[in-house]
Amino acid sequence: MSKATTSKVVLITGGTSGIGRAAALAFARRGDRVVVAGRRVSEGEETARLAREAGGDAVFIQTDATIPSEVEALVARTVERWERLDCAFNNAGITGEMARTADCTEENWHRTLSINLTAVWLSMKCEIRQMLKQSSGVIVNNASTAGLVGMRGGPAYSASKGGVIQLTRTAALEYAKQGIRVNAVCPGFIETPMTDAHARVNPDLEPWIRRIQPMGRLGTADEVAEAVLWLCSDAASFVTGHALAIDGGLVAQ
Length: 253
Ligand SMILES: NC(=O)c1ccc[n+]([C@@H]2O[C@H](COP(=O)([O-])OP(=O)(O)OC[C@H]3O[C@@H](n4cnc5c(N)ncnc54)[C@H](O)[C@@H]3O)[C@@H](O)[C@H]2O)c1
What we know:
Elements: H1 3-6, E1 9-13, H2 18-29, E2 33-38, H3 41-53, E3 57-62, H4 68-82, E4 87-90, H5 106-134, E5 137-142, H6 155-175, E6 180-187, E7 190-191, H7 193-201, H8 205-212, E8 219-220, H9 221-232, E9 243-246
Parallel strand pairs: 1-2, 1-4, 2-3, 4-5, 5-6, 6-9, 7-8
Helix pairs in contact: 2-3, 2-9, 4-5, 5-6
The structure holds nicotinamide-adenine-dinucleotide (NAD).
């Protein structure tokens, strides 16, 4: 089959860097049409340019995933441009501040939950409404191994990612008979700007990650992107409600 007949319309939130950017480029290499959403204009335009160079079509739409009207407009503009929405990767997220449960501030709690969990739900709402019109679509949410097991010093992060996994399972059940699949990826520690920022202030972090991740290394954004691509593909046509760990064996221990 030619690229034109298999080319999908893909929406990625937080596509300005890290795993989101790697996913945008991986979809683009297949010839897909990618909407890169994020807050930072120059980084978003850069991802879209790299995606076009990689062989796909791509456009950047500035979007704060926590603002309902912006998320609604994002999906509307995607459909206006390319008439449908085949795949959505709800990836935008932050780690928030690291502090144990009794020391976590309300501000950190609400901010982390707002970006990591509420924004995923807002995105899913708009995406699912479009996918119902088409009777088809695939959603992949970016959770974390911190949603599968506890994470000392990250109560808001861990709770938000656990919430993403449950939201994923719930929507998967709700729309299983309507042609919509919903899954989550659960990365372990991956080399991205998010991890780099923590490693800069804590030099012990990287050696610790290498010790606790059984493969003895950090994962790459490309390795997560490959899993997202597979979950979005027809090769995963019977997979829904799944939370896929991509973690070098971290949660197998
Ligand atoms: N790097 C890791 O080790 C790791 C592990 C598990 C899960 N994750 C998850 O992967 C996802 C991507 O993170 P990353 O590691 O690529 O880091 P990253 O910081 O490069 O990417 C996060 C992206 O989300 C964007 N973002 C944040 N708030 C936003 C908002 N309100 N609206 C729109 N965009 C927003 C950021 O600008 C950034 O582009 C996150 O959800 C993160 O929790 C990362």
